[in-house]
Amino acid sequence: MRSNNKILFIIVIFIINYSCNINCKSYYEDEIKDVLIRGIVINKYINYNNHGNAAIKLKDSTGNIKDYSPFCFYGLYEAVQKNDSLCKPSGSLEYRIYRKDTVIKLYPVIDGDTLR
What we know:
Largest sheet: 6 strands, antiparallel
Low-confidence stretches: none
Strand content: 25-35%
Number of domains: 1
Distance between the termini: 52 Å
């Protein structure tokens, strides 16, 4: 009976671990690619109410303020500065940071693959 409990415990742990594992590549291709992101960076911060994830506060052209969390995209949070314009066109994974006379183009890199 005890060995059955151990086997059941191992199976439950495996299922929990597998179901909680997030595939960043499919997340970007399935969830983010068709989303339009556009606004002026008014702040960036660590959101401790959301598991300590990095967050970028954007103001869009209508004056609405939204938080954007660059989940699985390491480098975007570090690259943007206050008053930059951030744009990610719908249908693309290219992020553009507009700063004075400079345009910085960034793409997510997942497991060594650049997503475009």
